[in-house]
Amino acid sequence: MAESADRDRRGGSRGGNRGGNRGQRRGDPRDRKQQDRGAPQAERAGKNLPRRIAWEVLLDVATKDAYANLLLPAKLSRTHMGAQDAAFTTELTYGALRRQKFYDAVIEVASSRAIEKIDPEPLAAMRLGAHQLLSMRVPNHAALSETVAVVKRSSPKTAGFVNAVLRRISEAEPAEWLDRVTAETSETARLAIEHSHPEWVVRALTQALKGHGRDAAELEALLAADNAPAKVGVTALPGLIDRTELPGEPTPLSPIGVTLNTAAPRDVAAVADGRARVQDEGSALVALALAEVDAPAGTWADLCAGPGGKAAVLGAAAAGESLTLEAFDSSEHRVDLVRDSTKALSNVTAALRDGRDARGPYSKILVDVPCSGLGALRRRPEARYRRRPEDITALSGLQRELLSSALDACAPGGVIAYSTCSPHYAETVLIVDEVLRLRAKSGSDDIEVLDAPAVLSSITGTEAESFASVTRDGGRYAQLWPHLHNSDGMFLALLRKAK
């Protein structure tokens, strides 16, 4: 059955075995804030398309290691659904993924089964239904009947099971479920369930806050920010287009960005033709910071350039100085993405090369190393469930080698930007500190740590202290935070090589 946006917004009867109108549902079980998401106004009759697409994405994420941020836009573009339908589908998908750990805890109690004992098809439907029942303004009857209808088409024998579990979930408020599934747990376990982060990630983020000089009391705000829907950010490439020519609202930090109220940024002509790029503010700021710092004239380089967003900003900035950018990646597919990202720039060359084999000399080098991605969980929510603590150790060797290569390939007086989309202390401060220590020990004490927060402050007009991480020899590293800057959690160290 198709339902209208008006009906979903009104809330309707909350029904269920508890009876009566249960009022509006919340996004966070501890507060009563609503995500004002309504069902689409014009679903295709009998198709239940938004829930169908969301269920398909959830299933592929669970069974095929698919990435929702790649899969969902492709599906939306093929359906040509309207903006309201696309927004509803997006919230169904990302919302269910962001709160998956909490929903799984509820499903285990409501079904009396361990999650691993439930087949993927009905489990994806239960997660989809739980999100509507516990975190959206969707009436019980719609959340139940329409979600069951989706799974009934592909796995009809499980429809009754899904219906029974969702009815059980609808019988209690989110806060009641939270109390039930966190009873007699540790504080870390409670936070992990309430905010749907693995316990090791909760511990790692606690240490990251402390390590970067912030108060550990900010932890809950940081975890909550990871579950807040992130708006689509678009960067206007300098020299090709001004952000005033783009639809949307100007970003508060990046002077070249806007946020869009659309799930289909490719519909924006400047994005389609390469003059603008879909990009988070934090990523744009990393590239702008490197471009901002003075260095001798010469070729610039991006050693880990895929998929190409930062390379596009750097290339545009280099073009403004009549300079060239060489962008490398060790993956042919990612090199192709870089070429697409920089297609509007004639001064950028993209090539297949391991960043550890950088030759130089380059006057400016960006080394945006592969990392855990713990700073971008609001955009890639499934990543939190795929990463493991051992991944940090596995990546550290590569991160050190890439930074060391960048330092060697940098021209005298040139600048290196080391960045990650993670605040994890072992991927940020410890990597830079260790590489600089070993370099000095080998007799090459030729690197100056610049004041990255001050550079970011000059670009954004924001207090430098909000970006501040640790101080090193008169300079400072910088760390952006989702809960403070409403951006991905980017780390940045700016390092100058002695002349």
From TrEMBL:
The active site is at C421 (nucleophile). Residues 1-11, 25-36 have a biased composition (Basic and acidic residues). The keyword Transferase applies. S-adenosyl-L-methionine binds at C304, A305, G306, P307, G308, G309, K310, D329, D354, D368. One of its GO terms (molecular function) is RNA methyltransferase activity. Keywords: Methyltransferase, RNA-binding, S-adenosyl-L-methionine, Transferase. One of its GO terms (biological process) is RNA methylation. Gene3D superfamilies: NusB-like (1.10.940.10), Vaccinia Virus protein VP39 (3.40.50.150). Residues 213-498 form the SAM-dependent MTase RsmB/NOP-type domain. Residues 13-22 have a biased composition (Gly residues). InterPro entries: MeTrfase_RsmB-F_NOP2_cat (IPR049560), MeTrfase_RsmB-F_NOP2_dom (IPR001678), NusB-like_sf (IPR035926), NusB_RsmB_TIM44 (IPR006027), RCMT (IPR023267), SAM-dependent_MTases_sf (IPR029063). Residues 1-47 are annotated as: Disordered. Pfam families: Methyltr_RsmB-F (PF01189), NusB (PF01029). It comes from the Bacteria. Belongs to the class I-like SAM-binding methyltransferase superfamily. RsmB/NOP family. This is Fmu (Sun) domain protein. It comes from Brevibacterium linens. The lineage of its organism: Bacteria, Bacillati, Actinomycetota, Actinomycetes, Micrococcales.
